[in-house]
Amino acid sequence: MNEGGTDLPPEEQQMWTTWVRERAVGALPPEKLLPDRQPSYVSSWIYVFGVAALASLVVVIASGMILGLKGPSWWHITGIGRFFNGIHLWAVELFFFTMVVHLWGKFFMAAWRGGRGRTWVSGAVVFLVAIGAAFTGYLSQQNFDSQWIASEGKDGLNSVGIGSFFNVADFGQMYTFHVILLPLAVSALIVWHILLVRRSGVVPPYAARAVAAAKAGGEGPPP
Amino acid sequence: MSSTPPAAPDPAAPWPGPFVRYDLVKELVIALAVIAGLAVVLTILFSSPDDPPVTIQSWSRADPADFVATSLTELAGTSEVAEYGPPYNHTPEATQKIGPLDLQSAGGVKIPIDTARDFVLDPLRSIPGSPRLQREVRRYEAAPAALRSAWIERYEAALEGARFPGALPSARFGPVAPMMAALLADAKSGGLDGVLLTGEHTFYQTNYTKPLLFLSGGEYFEGRAEGQHLLGTQWGMMNETGSYPGQVWLWLFTFWYQVEPFLESPNADALVFVVMAALSLAFICVPFIPGLRELPRHLRVYRLIWRDHYREVEG
Question: Where are the domains of chain A?
Answer without folding.
Answer: 44-95, 110-199
